[in-house]
Write a structure and sequence with these properties.
heterodimer, A: 287 residues, alpha/beta, 6-stranded mixed sheet, 4-stranded antiparallel sheet, 11 helices, 13 strands, 34% helix, disordered C terminus, B: 312 residues, mainly alpha, globular, disordered N terminus
Amino acid sequence: MTCIEARGLRKSYGKSVALDDVDLRVEEGRIVGLIGPNGAGKSTALHAMLGLTSFDGELKVLGRDPWNDRDALMRDVCFIADVAVLPRWIKVSQALDFIEGVHPRFDRSKAEAFLAKTSIRMKSRVRALSKGMVVQLHLALVMAIDARLLVLDEPTLGLDILYRKQFYDSLLNEYFDGRRTIIVTTHQVEEIQDVITDLVFIQHGRIVLNTSMEAIEARYAEVMVRPEHTEAARALRPMRERQVFGRSVMLFEGAPREQLQQLGEVRTPSIAELFMATMGDKQEGTR
Amino acid sequence: MSALNVAEERSVALPERAALQQHATRPFLWLVRRELWENPSIVVAPVAVAAVIVFGFFVAAIRFSGKVFISVNQDPVGAIAVAMIPLFFVAFALGITMLFTGVFYSLDALHSERRDRSILFWKSLPVSDRETVLSKLTVPMAVLPIVTFAVALSAQILIFLIENGAMLAHGGSLRALWTQLPIPAALTAFLYGLITTTLWYAPIYAWLMLVSAWARRAALIWAVVPFFILAIFEKIAFRTHYVVDLVKYRISGGFLAAFAQDPGLHQNRATVPLSDLTPAHFFASPGLWTGLVFAALVVVLLIRMRRYREPI
């Protein structure tokens, strides 16, 4: 079933265009990484899906119009935002009480079980928690909700590497069940490399790449070219070339593997490499 | 191992998800409770004011009661009037506290959630903007009057007990206190005062909430300054004072409509006789109904605005 369907999605703030005619379709059960430079429109896209901002064009999330149907939609959707949005005055126990009181699909015992594994105490106020603990708390609250779509907007921003690793481990091992859909934006692309099933690049409000991770293996290859083959490799028109320890590393799209293997060691490029190849140069050019 | 593999393995291992489990919710109740968590002053302010008055009266009763209560045998009427003063005073002070608390609560009601970005959290829960706005309106319109009445009643009971103690300590008779204090009438007048004031001030609370939803900062300035500017402009341009009159009417008109005489002016007796209550006059007052209509329109606007509200 389709989780998110956007057609001709547009949003502008005054003269600046945040989303420019975005078409996007996300099936249920996928983990989508939405990647783009600052100001590319990632957060705007997520906010539109969550009913937090108005938009032009067509957008359906789980069959609902998020802008006009936000409160009903939120029974099936959870959201963790970039910086902590939990109110600083709330106590952990109050947050549990409140969500239990308003959310029909919140399982308090699950949240408590998750919190028991952390050093977060029920009587603490959010303002007394460290940033990592606030994200843990929010994750505990969200994981206890039996939702169909989880939206994560830079969830690990400002966290140290331990918390970041834990965050995605918990998400995959304790939350994701193959039916839920997760959409995540992050600048730390390497940390979601092994997490996502689909990759969407967004730049200047437009989607510039939308692919599954399997398709990346088939479509892109990175070759550490042996010096004697440098010219031959360039003739195949790499998307991008960079130097590592004096050797050329080239990124190819759609080039036959057998041919590439003769030029040097071939591997699947990382998301970061693809990001640079797809958007790095254009981004420079616009500045 | 990629996440896709994890997903596949897990979906095989897991049994079919049971029909989504749901439990009953009471969003409105929890929204109002949430307001009390965020704004403890709703309860703390009246309790603190009442505690100070009761304690002050307790000290005064120990120090001065000999002079006051001992005379009850010579002048029972005067003694009753004296006994009535603190009971009236605590109610009056808590009424004023209620207004201040209501004003500052309303000015912050739709501002704090934008200021601390928590609006993104509240909006990520299945709670409608209408429930949210109405829950916030419920605080000055219902929670504050109820809390004020409850705290005032408790404080009055304590004061009454202190008076009994002072009377006993000086060999007086409790009979006058228990039979002659016009307590039912005083409580009725107080409750009536709370209800009429709250209804009359509904458009003020609504206006303050509108400013709190609209202003990016300095909500208090935005709430007050437009009236100053309008009044000054009107004075200079037309030499009239409709704006000033309107503000005055909104602030004091309710008392004038609800009570035959302004109770605050009664220095000679610390009670309001029931004959001073003029509910027919109050509920027939056009100022009440225009105010309520204005408040209702603002609330409709607020519900619509909340959908567009974002962190500031």
